[in-house]
Specification:
- It is built from 14 helices and eleven strands.
- The protein is of the alpha/beta class and 332 residues long.
């Protein structure tokens, strides 16, 4: 079967890991906690990943890191994402993942946030590929020694800036040192999340690598995902901002890929799903903090809903689950 004949919704093999489908949830700091991942899974996400976790914090037994590591109850296949700039620290951190039994370990080489980059981690590694290679090799060694040889994956950007586009070289280094999958967010670090993602970079990489290439960037609708799969030939798509407050994008995308059409999720179900996420998050981190965290999520859940602006004006002041329930009563 040629690439053109393959169904757009299809299974993906990542080393020894077999996934039913190719719709992934990206690791997004401040959003992809296990409460949110759990609702994404319920709507069809095939592979999920924790928020980025500091390797330095992990080896210091950070309590915050411990929470971020937790698997959702319905999470059958998840990756734990680590970031760091020291190969030995990354090795030691990866060894500490054994009690959590992740299906994969992901290495962050794409985060553009200054507090990560200034440590030499995240997308700063795009400027130091020898170090990046040593980090991938170190995590691969830890996986072999302590994690049952689970796949190691990497998430990279197109380059540091428009004058240093080096995703080809970065991906080659990653694979040479043991990576089983490369996810490419087709923006540079200098772009951050602005401008447009260059999907030509994804297509180019997918045509070169023998391991799966996952495309990321500007995926805000099922139609975007369909177009990326068609135009780039990537093995899977990875939703980031497009899934925030919109876990339904996974079910809608699968329906579009398999049947050519989909039904948008009605407003009551959108709100009920957000409320379910709130309750799960409260069980994890406490009601007060969960209610504050979910304000930004509900701004996304209510987007496009009739009367959504008025709801958001009230939700941004909600302090308790009961207040959320009262505000959302017409939908719950």
């Amino acid at each position: 079967m040629t690439d053109a004949e393959k169904p757009l919704y299809r299974s993906v093999s990542i080393g020894s890991l077999e996934l039913e489908g190719n719709l992934f949830l990206a690791p997004v700091a401040g959003y992809s906690d296990r409460a949110f991942r759990s609702v994404c899974i319920e709507f069809g996400a095939n592979f999920t990943c924790t928020e980025l976790i500091s390797s330095e914090a992990l080896i210091r037994d950070s309590k915050k890191s411990e929470y971020l590591l937790l698997r959702a109850e319905n999470e059958r296949a998840y990756a734990i994402q680590l970031f760091g700039s020291d190969p030995e620290v990354m090795y030691q951190a990866a060894l500490r993942l054994a009690p959590y039994h992740p299906e994969a370990v992901d290495i962050n080489c794409g985060c553009p946030v200054p507090k990560v980059v200034k440590t030499g981690a995240g997308s700063a590694l795009m400027k130091d590929l020898p170090r990046f290679g040593r980090i991938v090799a170190a995590v691969t060694r830890a996986s072999r020694e302590a994690l049952g040889n689970v796949p190691v994956t990497v998430k990279i950007r197109s380059g540091w800036d428009e004058h240093s586009i080096n995703y080809r070289e970065a991906a080659a280094v990653a694979v040479e040192n043991g990576a089983d999958l490369v996810a490419l967010h087709a923006r540079t670090r200098a772009q951050g999340y602005s401008g447009s993602a260059n999907w030509d970079h994804i297509a180019d990489l997918a045509s070169r690598l023998k391991v799966p290439v996952v495309g990321s960037g500007d995926l805000f609708s099922p139609e975007d995902a369909q177009r990326m799969l068609k135009e780039t030939g990537c093995a899977a798509v990875m939703f980031a901002r497009g899934a925030m407050g919109n876990p339904f994008i996974f079910a809608e995308t699968r329906s579009l890929l398999e049947t050519g059409t989909y039904e948008p999720v009605p407003a009551p179900q959108r709100i009920q799903t957000g409320f379910t996420q709130l309750k799960r998050l409260a069980a994890d981190i406490g009601e007060h903090l969960a209610c504050r965290e979910m304000r930004k999520q509900f701004c996304a859940y209510t987007k496009g809903i009739s009367g959504g602006a008025a709801l958001r004006n009230e939700l941004v002041h909600a302090e308790t689950i009961l207040q959320y329930q009262n505000i959302l009563a017409d939908y719950l």
